[in-house]
Design a protein that fits this description.
This protein is an all-beta fold and 189 residues long. Helices cover 0% and strands 44% of the residues. The chain starts with 9 loop residues before the first strand and ends in an 8-residue tail after the last strand.
């Protein structure tokens, strides 16, 4: 399988979520979408941390994505039982142009990442990046939404009544998407 590269491509724009950056024509500002992730037994109860809505893209274009967030394990503090929480995080995409938006199809565009945040560790940074090539069947001109999602899980999830949450810390994250256009095909002779 060939490596993805942005060599020879035109940078079409940079979209980012970061409430601490000043507004510019190439930045779309956003904010953290949730401040807590429910802890449960499932590894599929994701929450959206950050999302970026891009402009029109075409099949073969490349999305260069970097995302960061930070979680804090305050589970059981101050009077409950403290325990380790597993955290999974990943990048996803759906079509903003599709009338169903988030109710329509989603595509995972990165590898799965995961780590346990222990009571002693307390704070854990989450970082993930990927290069994603838009598939050949992507409708030309459709607008994708790139999303950083995470879940929190533990076999001890019900120690404190089943209502524990993992904190997502404001001011410690961002989602940056660089859209690289593929060169237009030369006209047929």
């Amino acid at each position: 399988m060939p490596y993805l590269t942005t060599a020879g491509l035109e940078l079409a724009g940079v979209m980012a979520t970061d409430p601490f950056q000043p507004a510019t024509t190439s930045m779309a500002l956003g904010a953290l979408e949730t401040t807590d992730i429910p802890v449960d037994l499932s590894t599929s109860s994701y929450r959206t941390l950050y999302r970026v809505v891009l402009g029109a893209v075409n099949p073969g274009d490349i999305l260069d994505v970097d995302a960061d967030a930070r979680v804090t394990n305050n589970v059981g503090y101050p009077d409950g039982r403290r325990y380790t929480v597993g955290v999974g995080w990943h990048l996803w995409m759906y079509s903003y142009t599709n009338p169903l938006k988030t109710q329509g199809p989603w595509w995972r565009i990165s590898a799965l990442s995961g780590e346990n945040v222990t009571v002693d560790m307390h704070h854990m940074p989450l970082h993930i990046s990927t290069l994603y090539r838009l598939p050949d069947d992507w409708p030309p001109g459709d607008r994708p939404v790139v999303v950083l999602r995470a879940d929190a899980h533990s076999t001890a999830w019900n120690y404190n009544g089943g209502n524990d949450t993992l904190d997502v810390d404001a001011g410690y994250g961002q989602l940056i998407v660089r859209h690289w256009k593929t060169p237009a095909a030369p006209p047929a002779a």
